[in-house]
Amino acid sequence: EYRLAAIKCVTEIAVLSFDQCHNPKFVKMYSTMIHKLSECYLSFDTDFAEIWDLGDDSVKEFFIAICLFLTGALSSHLFVLEGSCPDDTVMGVHYIIKIAQIDDIEILKIWSEFFQFFCIELYHSVVQSPVLLEASPSAPTRVHPARWVLYFKCIPLIRNLLIDKMARPEEVVIVENEDGEIVKETMKDSEMLCLYHVMRETLIYLTHLDCGSTEQAILEKINDQVRGVEWDLSKLN
């Protein structure tokens, strides 16, 4: 109970807007939380989804609270954290990716909204940064913007996550009406439809950042379905 209350308290602080003079204290708080998570609770070798499935309600509340803290802190102070503790910032993104493997609608809502913000921010910063060419003896070398380099290892994981967890769009069913006519009937799920639009927009921004990798990721997953390596009806949908 104390652990959960403490995380909720820190989360309330993390989403506040404050003067720059408080930035060092916030950065220290964030870094301390990240290190405590890795040392005491959740190492990257841990299967978060398995702990969730086997855990009681307090365990589930703990994961949701951690996800809210990470997404809140990174959404509210991303630039400050990138400049002061880039390694811990990337670690926070990796934690969100790990938590996103949990099959839960509340967690899905939290991380999908965060990655929408994150990918839009990344896209605009990369697009607005001039692409430099560094001369070398053999050929010019492309120099990517600093933010792209910082999150380079995260991007494929986010891309695969969105493809695997993509919410269903509006469904259309062909039915026969009372007059015996064949008509289209639209099945709407407003909650999942909103999630679909959020996730779809995020994947579009990732595609603009690296079209070839997105195409390759989708083709590889389709091939796995065809070969039976990763047959899963929900993923195929």
Distance between the termini: 40 Å
Quaternary class: single chain
Stretches where pLDDT is under 50 for at least 5 consecutive residues are: 132-142
Q: What fraction of residues sit in β-strands?
A: 5-15%
How do the strands line up in the largest sheet?
1-2
Radius of gyration: 21 Å
How many DSSP H or I helices? 11
Number of strands: 4
| Proportion of residues in helical segments | 55-70%
Overall pLDDT level? 85
What does the largest sheet look like? 2 strands, antiparallel
Q: What is the H-and-E element order?
A: HHHHHHEEHHEEHHH
Structure description:
A two-stranded antiparallel ribbon has the order 1-2. Helix content is 69%, strand content 8%. About 5% of the residues have low confidence. A hairpin with a 6-residue loop joins strand 1 and strand 2. Helix 1 packs parallel to helix 4, helix 2 packs across helix 5 and helix 4 runs parallel beside helix 6. With 237 residues, it is mostly helical.
Describe, in short, the structure shown.
The protein is mainly α. It contains eleven helices and four strands; from the N terminus they run H-H-H-H-H-H-E-E-H-H-E-E-H-H-H.
Descriptive keywords:
mainly alpha, globular
Topology overview:
Blueprint: H1 2-14, H2 23-41, H3 48-54, H4 57-84, H5 86-99, H6 105-128, E1 132-134, E2 141-143, H7 146-150, H8 154-165, E3 171-176, E4 182-187, H9 190-209, H10 211-227, H11 233-236
Antiparallel strand pairs: 1-2, 3-4
Helix pairs in contact: 1-4, 2-4, 2-5, 4-5, 4-6, 5-8, 6-9, 8-9, 8-10, 9-10
